[in-house]
Write a structure and sequence with these properties.
Layout (H helix, E strand, L loop, with lengths): L1 H13 L5 H11 L4 H7 L5 E4 L6 E4 L4 E2 L2 E3 L6 E2 L10 H22 L3 E9 L2 E11 L6 E15 L5 E18 L3 E18 L6 H35 L5 H25 L1
Antiparallel strand pairs: 1-2, 3-4, 4-5, 6-7, 7-8, 8-9, 9-10
Length: about 270
């Protein structure tokens, strides 16, 4: 039912993102009738595969899958091999290659590592695509984490092709775990989804890739700031509220001094009146 689906989605939003796959399978086992709705509604952490023709890594998702095979954006081939897999048109494939090169540089500049992939497909009056970025921690035992961003873009080209309407849906999944002797183990994690629609002019100076790139850059910066404020800022406030580096005697002395000062000020005001 709709109520069951709403409850399931609400539950998944509150569970750790690093355990999404396990929790999703448990939910499907619990309510098999929601299988298709849950799989289509819940974003899962991105998986990495390697293109056997050129040795480059690419990301797997529903948008580059056909059956049990996945298309690489670098060679435009399916692995395992698939003869009749869905392919973008020649015009769109050229744009896809340019987009992959552009976002590969974007990923390197912003994330200093990780893997990115861009997949495009044709629509009746334009095209759509997905831009994927994954960055895993450097492997340190003390600090582990992962960033997954999924940007789905729909582009509706207008009449002359010199203007277009862009609709962007961005989802970021982030988790971080620190393990230290002094503070123990702490887990932070969550996901955030935001949408944005805009109209942009399409020219030689501002082609589709530039317009999409600016939208995604702005969106990621906003989401990054929000995640920092919600997860790290809020956690810091909570920890500061329940833990103090001062001992009880020092805190009691400070309170006594504050009370004496307050009493002195109050008595002085009474004498003036």
């Amino acid at each position: 039912s709709d109520q069951q689906l709403d409850c399931a989605l609400d539950l998944m939003r509150r569970l750790p993102p690093q355990q999404i796959e396990k929790n999703l399978m448990d939910l499907i086992d619990l309510v098999p009738s929601l299988c298709e709705d849950l799989l289509s509604s819940i974003d899962q952490p991105l998986k990495i595969a390697r293109d056997k023709t050129n040795g480059r890594d690419y990301l797997l998702c529903d948008y580059n899958r056909d059956g049990d095979s996945y298309r690489s954006p670098w060679s435009n081939q399916y692995f395992p091999e698939l003869d009749d897999g869905v392919m973008p048109s020649d015009r769109l494939r050229k744009l896809e290659v340019e987009a992959n090169n552009a976002f590969d540089q974007y990923r390197e500049l912003y994330f200093e590592g990780g893997v990115s992939s861009v997949y495009l497909w044709d629509l009746d009056h334009g095209f759509a695509g997905v831009i994927l970025i994954k960055k895993v921690g450097d492997g340190s035992d003390a600090i582990k984490g992962c960033w997954d961003s999924i940007h789905v873009i729909e582009v509706q080209e207008k009449g002359s092709g010199r203007a277009a309407h862009y609709k962007l849906t961005s989802t970021v999944m982030l988790w971080l775990r620190t393990t230290k002797e002094t503070s123990g183990t702490m887990n932070l994690g969550g996901s955030l989804t935001r949408q944005l629609e805009a109209d942009h002019v399409v020219t030689d100076a501002t082609p589709h890739i530039v317009n999409i790139g600016r939208m995604i850059e702005d969106m990621e910066n906003k989401i990054r700031s929000t995640l920092n404020e919600i997860y790290f800022g809020k956690t810091k406030d909570i920890v500061n509220g329940v833990r103090s580096i001062k001992n009880l005697n020092s805190m009691q002395q400070q309170r006594n001094i504050q009370q004496e000062l307050a009493a002195s000020l109050a008595s002085r005001n009474l004498k003036r009146n």
